[in-house]
Amino acid sequence: MRCRNSQDADDLVMQLTRTTAMLRQMIEREHHTPNPADLSGVLTSGSFRSEGLRVFGYWPIERRFVENMLGGGQG
Prior knowledge:
By secondary structure, this protein is of the alpha+beta class. 49% of the residues lie in helices and 13% in strands. The chain contains three helices and two strands. The protein has helices at 6-29, 39-44, 63-69, and strands at 47-51, 54-58. The chain has a two-stranded antiparallel ribbon with strand order 1-2. The longest helix has 24 residues, at 6-29. The N and C termini lie far apart (33 Å). The mean pLDDT is 94.
């Protein structure tokens, strides 16, 4: 994503990082752990960085997740 200035980009990285941590905490509060085979694992594994005006997000996606999305996974 492209922001208006580098401060906005840095702020967005912090906001996305906090939101990801909050999701992880909510899952843990329910006595669960993020599952790499479903969306909870993908969303909670996100990491973010800024370079100048741009913000980059990275979400590692495991094969199990893709297989489940395509209906071929065992869980």
